Amino acid sequence: MDKYYSKAEVAEVLGVHERTIARYLHSGKLKGARMGKAWRISESDIKAFYEEMKTETSNVNRLRSKD
Hints:
elongated, 67 residues, alpha+beta, three-stranded antiparallel β-sheet
């Protein structure tokens, strides 16, 4: 069973502001579940998001190096 984290915990791990995590959740980039007023993000969803962001970043870097 996955462990669940708060927006603040995810923000700290990823090194971004909590508002950034909220934007990712609202846009659907990062999956999470509302539990009452709080968001909870599973460990597997954090890993999937991190891998997707690494892929996007490497694609952008490849495009920039072609210029």
